């Protein structure tokens, strides 16, 4: 729980925070605009990599951090407990910890920690556990406000790696690909967890929903286990749906839909591949598709100025970093041997983290792969997406969280 001393310390650090070049929260999966865009520009760092501000040992999990009001929220697991930590963004000092007991065990032995990244909205923190428990906590104290047992209420089937969808917050509602019979997509009130509406019976994937403009309206767009599903977030009316998944049962959809001009890009692995769709007269029409352009196992690609940047190929078989023309699927360049990882965009640059802990700053350039800076910043495996706020990148590997200064204070 936050104490008077914690608040006094935060107030004392506030002048330091305001000296930075900009301030922006990172409230949910893939950033404030849900497309991996970071505010500002990042200058190439010097030899040795960006300055490490602090580090913190963590339990297991692939859940990424989120940041609000200069507090970083972490969701991880140690032994038989899920841990929700709030830490000061500039020091890494813990403000509060909430503990949830758990007996979840991953059916395939790929890690028992959480995979869902939390979401922040109006002073509340929302998390989803691997056993499909949806919780709301007070951001200042860590006090539980409400919870919904999704598995029990909607009789959902457990996925290969438990439940791993991150919440999509829209106004005072929270949308999830729950995956139950008659409850494929469910909309909850952020105030009390009550159900607003539910539609379809499409099973849950590992891809998180995105709010994007399709045609003349903003739609909550999901890549469920079956394929594309776009709904009006206020009513739940289904506007677009299309099957896009592997014929193999032992497969997952994990990369989120990517907004491209006039349409949407979907990508999956397991001999499925990518597809670019364009909205026309209320329908989505295929522009191109194929398994040879950009087949992402789990990392969501980045779109920038007519091109898609992402990791192509299965993680366990060796993926590679690629640039692909969004309108045609043409591979512009490829970097083999990178493995999987994540990509964010800052202005005209791409920040890339390979799964082996190698961080790259690339020029967003479809003509050639141009590395502006690189550094080995982690030793463990990278899966979780990072957060970026006040010029600082918050990122974790399998055992540790680090804060790197990417934009220096003025």
Please report the first level of CATH classification, the CATH class: Mainly Beta
Proportion of residues in helical segments = under 10%
The CATH topology? Methylamine Dehydrogenase, Chain H
Q: What is the CATH superfamily?
A: YVTN repeat-like/Quinoprotein amine dehydrogenase
Overall geometry = globular
Query: What proportion of the residues form beta strands (DSSP E)?
Result: over 45%
Please tell me the total number of domains: 1
Our Rg estimate from Cα atoms comes to: 20 Å
For the sheet with most strands, the description reads:
5 strands, mixed
Query: What is the count of DSSP helices, taking H or I runs of 4+ residues?
Result: 2
In angstroms, what separates the terminal alpha carbons? 33 Å
Low-confidence stretches: 1-22
Structural class: mainly beta
Write out the strand line-up for the largest beta sheet, numbering strands in chain order.
1-27-28-29-30
